[in-house]
Amino acid sequence: MDVHISRKKEIFPVREDLRRYLKEYQRESAIPISYADLLTFDQSISLMDKNDKDTLWKIAMYPQHEIPRIYEGLKQIYAQLKASGNTKQLAHLFIERIDFCTFGNTHPFRIKIVNKYNDVYDYFYLKVPDASRIYGLELEHILSPNQLNFLVDGNTLVEQHIHGIPGDMFIKDYMFREGYNPKRIAKEFVKFNERCFVRLLGDMRAYNFVVEITPDFDDFHFRLRPIDFDQQCYEGQCKVYLPQYFKENFPFVQLAMEHLNESVVEQYKLEERSLIVNRIKSERYRLKHLRDVMSRDSLSKTEKIEQLAIELSNYYKDIYFLKCTSMAAILDHSLKRLLRTVKGW
Question: Do the beta carbons of residue 162 and residue 225 sit within 8 Å?
Fold first, then answer.
């Protein structure tokens, strides 16, 4: 059976309950430049990669009289995102480029910011806020080993850049390099697959996640990190939440089949579930607050909710899923059954 993704996902508004949650956890903050301000560019040129291939991003160009205001505002946003609003180091930074994405649901802007003393650069993003994406970001921060910074103000979402090699590029140029242990790569894919499924993050095709490579004292460590959170608790097909079923990820699946047996795969899945349980325990009040907010939000269509409840009920042999009437309820039960099934809880 093919994995089906909606051609155009609906963007869900950020309602007042969610805004109060974001404010309580320092995710909401007034910012000097909005997404709408960046839409005022009057010219653009295609951004080419180092091989002179079109990246499908456009370099946005602004009227000269607007540039000082926009660039200074963006530097202040970067200080809010990275340094709790401390602006002492802003004199060392300059905006090199603002890119506009011509594809995807939220048409983000990507800002390249550079330290003029050493040419070290970073990126961050301004996007249209989508409640699905915000829930996805927050769940990633709470339930995964990855910390995330983002801010919301009105109709603007600001996100940090998630560093790593895009999954499709990793498959093409890195996966089979000499010195890279294929068993470690396979292990991480199994754990990543489990993280996505438990917290219902969908559409993790290779170009929607990155691979971090960290040298260890005798080997390399790999971690897969999502970069696209739009498909949090949206689709009805169970397999959408399992990266192993996307054809783009087949090289990872093949690696796991070649180097891991069934017993080892189950061991890695149990390890990952146990880590998630520990995070649920340590963040249980924040997670409960998020769940309560989600339960009052609309995150998908009725037919998708019903389909996912049926498919998860069949997958887990757990009829309680059939009583769930919202994506929040399905996610809540997924996490609660994890707490019950992991040994020692």
Answer: yes
pLDDT at residue 71 greater than cutoff 70: yes
Query: How many whole angstroms separate alpha carbon 54 and alpha carbon 237?
Result: 33
Mean of pLDDT over the chain? 93
CA distance 169 to 175: 9
If phi > 0 it is left, if psi is from -120 to 50 it is alpha, else beta; for residue 336 that is: alpha
Residue 1 predicted with pLDDT over 80: no
Kindly state the average pLDDT of the residues 252-264: 97
User: Can you give the pLDDT at residue 345?
Assistant: 47
Q: Residue by residue, what is the 3-state secondary structure of 293-315?
A: HHHCCCCCCHHHHHHHHHHHHHH
Q: Tokens 């149990």 label which residue?
A: 270
Burial class (CB in 10 A: 0-12, 13-18, 19+), 82: middle
Q: Could you please report the per-residue DSSP string of 129-148?
A: --HHHHHHHHHHHHHSS---
Q: What is the DSSP letter of 232?
A: B
* Dist. CA 206–CA 250, nearest whole Å: 9
Please name the helix (run of DSSP H) or strand (run of DSSP E) that holds residue 59, with its range, or none. strand 54-61
